[in-house]
Design goal:
Length: 107
């Protein structure tokens, strides 16, 4: 059951990565230049209140070192890359390995 949840989350992250890639491609065609949207810009355009809430909660409840080098590094990455890597990680966690025995082998 847990594998199913991880694979479902992986598919959701993959679909978000594809949506972000299509949006960046459309903006690039419109601007005749390469346009890459950062995760920070995407998050603030969707919900600026939640971005500020997460920032304050990380800085107050956790160490501020998690926000300053780590989270800012992740937020400055392209949205497509972050969601694609997250989808790959979640799918790898939820991957069902094949049996080592053959298909017709006696068990």
């Amino acid at each position: 059951m847990l594998r199913l949840i991880f694979r479902l989350l992986a598919y959701i992250c993959l679909s978000l990565a594809i949506i972000a890639a299509v949006l960046d491609a459309a903006r690039s065609v419109g601007a005749s230049n390469l346009v890459i949207t950062l995760l920070r810009d995407s998050w603030q355009s969707v919900s600026a209140n939640s971005f500020a809430l997460v920032e304050t909660s990380i800085r107050t409840h956790l160490y501020s070192i998690f926000w300053d080098p780590l989270m800012l590094w992740v937020l400055d990455a392209p949205t497509v890359l972050v969601f694609a890597l997250l989808a790959l990680l979640l799918y790898a966690i939820g991957y069902r390995r094949a049996d080592k025995t053959g298909r017709f082998a006696a068990r």
